[in-house]
Amino acid sequence: MTSKPRVWISNREPQVGDVVTVRAMVSHAMETGFRKSPAGEIIPRNIINRFECSFDGQTIFAGDLDTAVSRNPFIEFKFKVPGAGQLQMAWSDDEGQRIDAALEIATS
Amino acid sequence: MELMTRRQALRAFVVLSAAFVCTPAMSRETLQALMSDLMDAEPAVADWLILTAPEEADNPSAVKVRVQVVPPKELGIFCEEVLLVLEKNPRPAACRFTFSSMTEPDFTTNLRFAEGQEVMALARMSDGSVVTAKAPVKLTVGGCGL
Lengths: 108, 146
Fold this sequence. Notes:
The structure holds two protein chains of two kinds. Chain A has a single domain (about 5-30, about 45-105), classed as Sandwich (Immunoglobulin-like), CATH 2.60.40. A four-stranded antiparallel β-sheet of chain A has the order 4-3-6-7, with no helix packed on it. A three-stranded antiparallel β-sheet of chain A has the order 1-2-5, with no helix packed on it. The model of chain A has no long low-confidence stretch (mean pLDDT about 90). Chain A is mostly beta strands. Chain A has no helices and seven strands. Chain B has a single domain (about 30-140), classed as Sandwich (Immunoglobulin-like). In chain B, the strands form two sheets. In chain B, strands 1, 3, 5, 6, 8 and 9 form a six-stranded mixed β-sheet that branches. In chain B, a hairpin with a 4-residue loop joins strand 8 and strand 9 (about 130-140). Chain B is globular, with a radius of gyration of 17 Å. Strand 4 (about 60-65) of chain A pairs antiparallel with strand 6 of chain B, so a sheet runs across the interface. Chain B: Keywords: Signal.
């Protein structure tokens, strides 16, 4: 149960050295593995366990998530823009599914 | 038996992804172990580790928690990783974020609360010290903001 991630950035054309805020959200049930189906069987755990953000291939921010993170995980963070480039984000879940998003940043 | 294969698959995935990134992903068992690790370091309470959470939350399945790490400049240290802990949750270690020189140690995320409790942040600094901060969160019954 996934869809296109939603990514917001405070400034798409920042100056070099500016600090920008990024909000990233992806649709995912984040099934904890604690719940039972009506038939009484445990619904297997499937959560996004890793979020990675890189700038032109270099990892700048990463997170390991556990079951206590809400469904449709929302992550907001800040980084200093080193120059024009591409911000790449990747989410991966327990089933090995990977969701990618990218954002072009131009410097003014 | 099924659990074993799942764990093996997870481990293989972790090793694989570790080959490509500078901050290797951890299996979730390691995330829980990291929590005991940081707790064993007897973290000191620091007022420059700012943990912001609502005093009263009306939706326990999405409580917005913000962490900012702003150590005084004269200390000359920076933050390497932050772990958020909900001690009354079935799996207490909630999430862990790692930073680089390009990232400000300032993030916000939504957490699930099994019950009203204190959320705890543990931050490992570049000199190896661990600092902590806590914020109590009450859950309102009914959730209409009353």
